[in-house]
Amino acid sequence: MKENSIKSIASTSLFFIFLSINCQDLNHSFKPGLIWPDTEGRHINAHGGAVIYFNNIYYWFGEYRLPRSEKDKSRYGVSCYSSGDLMNWKNEGLALRVISDSSGILNPGCVIERPKVIYNKKTGKFVMWFHHELKGQGYKAALTGVAVSDNITGPYKYIKSLRPNAGVWPLNFPEGYKKSSPGDKDIKTGSEEWKAAVKEGLLVRRDFGNGQMARDMTLFVDKDGKAYHVHSSEENMTLHFSELTDDYLDFTARYIRVLPGESNEAPAIFFARGKYFMFTSGTTGWKPNPARLAVSKKIFGEWKSIGNPCRGTEDENKVTFASQSTQILPVNGKKNAFIYLGDKWIPENLADSRHIWLPVEWEKGNPVIKWYPSWNLNKL
Ligand code: GAL
Which ligand 1 atom is at minimum distance from the Cα of 266? Predict the structure, then answer.
């Protein structure tokens, strides 16, 4: 054989070997609950997060959970991945990182959860909000933090953390709820009496001066460009929907209470078929529980619970296919096409927590989710 043809056979085979390795590496379907390798083969470390679509690319922001072997707590923050097809994700590194060289509160050892990023058309900036807990204080602080960047992938500049809406009453708070009664402080936390009192504003009154608690959160940008910060407040008993300022960097002081006393967290809001829908979970920490669906004609309207959106076996419905909601993601270019994004938490090693992505299907005008061990966008 001539030397040239040997060379060409060798290079063609190399090409095919290269191609087959690359093809094997590509993800061709969503496989909820399994390890989801990024383009470098590592499980995607972005939890409790959300995806946004910008200039033909999807960006996925989430909690970067420190692998158990990682002792350096300064490598902690919010991770960012990019993708053109929602299945193959490139790691863009940490978009927000704790600040080691300061005495500030975004320091190594603090907790950052459920980060969400939105784009502000007026300012041209990307705004990130996240649930922020202080080092060594468990979940006591209940703050929401905000950071901003000119570039979608970051680095995001931390601005501040706060308890929102200090000194203002919710817009839907009856006059009669505004005055404390002398017995308020004697009510036993967790008792039936306490639950009834919470519904009637006990904790809103308690936190009126210093601001309302903010734990699990999401952001929602409405058709008119107004953005809303939605979070579990009042010891996780009631959701608060708060309007953000035009630059999305602060609260306007307009807010409402939603489903008071009903213990919702993990909120995920979307608009479809003329209505606002919200997926939430109950409050059982890392353990999954039955998902809940609520609907409203207006964002600041009357939200009504309409049951569990899961359509699986009884056991699957009880635990939302082992997941907790984090976003309902609109798929670009397809009408009424959404993906349910949930977390299957592994508390012993949070970095290993799995992603449960399922297609949103429709039943009598309402969204439902079913289990598919493997699926792709043709399903939508
Ligand atoms: C969940 C919440 C998570 C995390 C966890 C801690 O209920 O949704 O984001 O805060 O509790 O136990």
Answer: 8
